Amino acid sequence: MYLKYFAVGSFVLLLLSFPLLFSAMYKKLDAAERYMPYSTFIVGCRHTFRHFHFEGRPQRVFAMATVILIPKVIQWRGMVLVEDVQKIPLHLKYWMVIPTLATFLGLIGICITGLLVESDII
Amino acid sequence: MQGPYAFINERPMPYPQLKLSLSLNQHTHTKFDIINQHIRNVVVLPGQLVIIPDASTASCTTEEARLMRSAQNIKHVLLAHSATDQFLIKNYDQLQAIMSHASLGIGSASSAWSKHLSHVEKTLNEIDALHKQYLSKGSTAARDEFLARRRALFATLDRQLSGMARLGTGLKNEGSIKKMLGISSKRYWHHGQIRGYEEAVKRVAKASEIVKKGTYIGIALDVGSTALEITEACSKGREQECTQAKYVEGAKLVGSVGGASAGGIAGAYVSTAVCMIAFGIPTAGAGALACAIIGGAAGGLAAGKLGGKGGEWVGDALYHAVER
Fold first, then answer.
1. Which terminus of chain B has fewer Cβ atoms in its 10 Å neighbourhood, N or C?
2. B positions 102-131 inside 8 Å of A (CB)
3. Chain-chain contact of B292 with A48 (C-beta, under 8 angstroms)
4. Residue B97 lies in a domain
5. Is B48 inside any structural domain?
6. How far apart are CA B69 and CA B282, in angstroms?
7. Is the Cα torsion angle A36, A38, A44, A47 positive or negative in sign?
8. A63/B273 CB distance under 8 A
9. Is the ipTM beyond the 0.85 threshold?
10. Domain count, chain B
11. Are B282 and A52 a contacting pair at CB < 8 A?
């Protein structure tokens, strides 16, 4: 029974993540990226994904979310400064992190559902 | 490029002509005949699968055997239906296996790759223009200038084709750029011929086009198959089955396309981020691009397949909930 809710929930979350991600990448991404012009991680991602669909904006939102969620790990590799991350306003942080988590959780959920269906568990 | 690959023939063509148009090297000629038994010495119809053998080995690989089986299946279906205009829909199963999910996954990276290929094409065209320009002058002074400019263009091309970046250009790693392009300086000076050159340019241009359209073909195949499944269920005259098919197939389509798109985007990002953090490639050169493309393809393929299955199950659950 719970598996049914989990599967439908993941499906809905994945669908919901698309409008969220598109809003974030076209309305908030540029403002958020302005806070870290010297981060090699952010600049590197922007450079790598510049010719991808939508100028690589979805991936850039994910990169911003990664930097916000695990700044110390990225700083350990010398690709960002924790002080720069702290300067990002809270509402921008939410705009970067929530669509990313929604996409990844929805994706993981739908993949788990697929695996369970494949192995005849549900 | 290592490993075999296959393409779908676009227009009716006699087998020898098709073989000639592929500019195969001498070693792969015999192997090409062996693995393309299904089309050998006949007119190759549009939609038939043509397999380009793995040039690195003379024996047949497992992947080649699998492609041969797919090619045979496609041939049978084609002969059974004979209407080639409906080819994409009728051969959905085989085609989907080859390109649907994978191309959707690669789709997230495909525009970048096609851009890269168009840069290679531009450099090749510049080399071509330089050769023509020199031919019209032909003086000794012009020759020195020509050699210097050509060396610079070759260096650019070498950079563009280094490592993974060669993939999809159809240009094999045969040592020097001149050898790879089929340009022999000696022959050129004496006969003014650039062997295989036009083919290289055309091949790169075509690869760029195909890569660009891969995503849309993948989506079209998925949508086409969903429409077919629903039409088939509804044509049987049982209303219940028809409604169920709409729920199940609709959700399967959403799960498959949504999963492949999100999986492609997420896979490209995750693999690039892991490569950057683990190997430290902040300069984001060809290595990072390769990580992105491999991740995008793998993510799209896995999430597309599992998303399709998950979506199918969710559609079925929704249908039963609504029915109750």
1. C
2. 107-109, 111-112, 115-116
3. yes
4. no
5. yes
6. 43
7. positive
8. yes
9. yes
10. 3
11. no
Q: Indicate yes or no: CB of A8 within 8 angstroms of CB of B251.
A: no
pTM, 2 dp:
0.57
Is B79 an 8 Å CB contact of chain A?
no
Q: Which residue has the tokens 């979310």?
A: A65
Q: Do B111 and A58 touch (CB under 8 A)?
A: no
Residue with tokens 């600049």: A43
**Strand ranges, E, within chain B:** 5-8, 13-14, 43-44, 49-52
Full domain range(s) for residue B50: 5-90
CB contact under 8 A, A52 and B292: yes
pLDDT per position as a tens digit, A13-35 = 999 999 999 999 999 999 999 99
Tokens of A52: 């991808």
Lowest-confidence segment of A41-55, B75-89, B293-307 by average pLDDT: B75-89
Nearest CA in chain B to A67: B273
Domain ranges of chain A: 2-118
Binned at pLDDT 50, 70 and 90, residue A68 comes out as very high
B218 interfacial to chain A (CB closer than 8 Å): no
Closest CA to B309 of A10, A13, A118: A118
- One-letter amino acid at B110 equals S
Q: Which of B282, B292, B310 sits opposite A40 (nearest CB)?
A: B282
Among A74-83, A99-108, B160-169, where is mean pLDDT lowest?
A: B160-169
Residue B41 backbone phi and psi in degrees, to 5: 60, 30
Residue percentage of chain B with pLDDT more than 90: 1
pLDDT value at residue B191: 32
Structural domain ending residue among the three candidates B27, B60, B90: B90
